[in-house]
Design brief:
136 residues; mainly beta; five-stranded mixed barrel; binds zinc ion; DUF35 domain-containing protein; ChsH2_Znr; Thioester_dehydratase-like
């Protein structure tokens, strides 16, 4: 069985379209400038419905993680890591977080605050080892 693709709708299509092109896009309120994720139609800070997107640079830092041992979905070889990462953003000091899997990092090598790079594979985004060019 292959991994099911995310369910997309009006509020989150921009995110998955960005990931398909190799970008993580985060919503930015055009009224107050705050960033928000996961996608939502309204700004939680000022209730504006107007928003745009800003790009993540591709660098991130490990905020937290868990190792899933079972039950394993049929497309995963376990145990596998689920990580919460702080994104480095273009033109912003904000560090929005996303949840994703990992590629190229052994579970036992995960360390809180370790630098990471975004890896795009099969229409999804993963956290991988920090690439040359430096951590944020
Ligand atoms: Zn706002």
């Amino acid at each position: 069985m292959t991994r099911p693709l995310p369910v997309t709708g009006r509020d989150n299509a921009y995110y998955w379209e960005g990931v398909a092109k190799g970008d993580v896009l985060i919503q930015k309120c055009t009224a107050c400038g705050s960033l928000r994720h996961p996608p939502s139609p309204m700004c939680p800070d000022c209730q504006s419905l107007d928003w745009t997107t800003v790009k993540a640079t591709g660098h991130a830092v490990l905020h937290s993680y868990t190792i899933c041992h079972h039950p394993l979905p049929p497309w995963e070889e376990g145990p596998y890591a689920v990580v919460l990462i702080d994104l480095d953003m273009e033109d912003s000091d904000a560090r929005p977080r996303i949840v994703c899997g990992t590629r190229g990092i052994a579970n036992e090598d995960l360390r809180i605050e370790m630098p990471l790079s975004l890896v795009f594979e099969d229409g999804l985004v993963f956290a991988g080892p920090a690439q040359e060019g430096g951590a944020p």
